[in-house]
Specification:
The chain is of the alpha+beta class. About 20% of the residues lie in helices and about 35% in strands. The relative contact order is 0.09.
Length: about 350
Amino acid sequence: MRKRTINRHWRRVLACSLLLVMCLLLAACGDKAKAPSASSDDAVTATGEAGSEADAPVQEESVDVEEPDSEAPPDGTEAKPEPSAAPEGRQPEPQAKPEETGSAAEEETSAATYDFPESLKPGFHPVESVELEPITPVPSWELLNTLTIGYYSGEPISLEIYRPTGSEEVCTFSHEAIGILVYRGQPLRLPECVPNDLADDAALSDAVIWLGHEYRSGGQHIYLHGTIALAANGPGRIGILYQDVTLGRWYMIGDWGKPMLADMDGDAAHELVLQFEGLHLSWPDVTIYRWHQGSWERSDRVAQLLDVPEQTIHLARLVQAAGRFAIELQVFLNPDLETPVSARYAYQGGILTRLNDGDA
């Protein structure tokens, strides 16, 4: 009986101990659950009471960071990975243009260093002249104008302009007219039609050019009269008129350009130089005529003598500097047509020789 009473006592003690332990554990768990709420309240209270302490600088822990390759913006803002994301009020940093490599860069360098040849030799070829045939104007033709285009041996040389009014198809288009040269009372028809603008005296400044130069070689005597505008599909078509004084016959050579008498080589014998101003897909160029061994010869177009890449724009112009004539060649390396490279050539003995910068 006593032993059973003792066992019951210890069981009660053990139960109370377990109950006490459980109460302690519950109390500990309750404290942990309340800790964040208390910290938050403390933070709010500290912010409300301290006020300006929130604006005070915060001391940051120093950390070693690897320096980037590019410099940070001068205003201390964080560098952005893309240039377009620059801070407001600041322009993006200019990006360096990548260097050109490969065949494109080599081609541009090659073109930029184009070297003009030291000399050019144009070929000269015989020219076909057409003799002016005598003609009697048809009574139905309308006389538009009579022009005095020069003199030879004190006698006038005139040009009569007619508009055909009959059924005969003398000229192709309505803006064309018939040209008849009259010398010593003899009317001679031009082999090609002329523009009917010649009926207006105000249009004659460039349409009719009187040169009046003579060539003598052996038993021949040639009088180069001048040029007259011819009808064509664009400006610049001319007829070169000359007389074989020995035979008393007139001839015409058709070509393109504006004529000029120029002593190109300084031998006192003037060459006939045509400056073609360009038309359609043809660029300005120069052609040289010479009276050689009893006949006219015409040179190759000078600009075509250059060995330049296909479709590269290149041209030639007749220039005069320091009392001498020269031919300036230009090559346009870029499509902007603003930055050509150029060189000047003197004509001597049928050869074009490049001039030094000081001589040009």
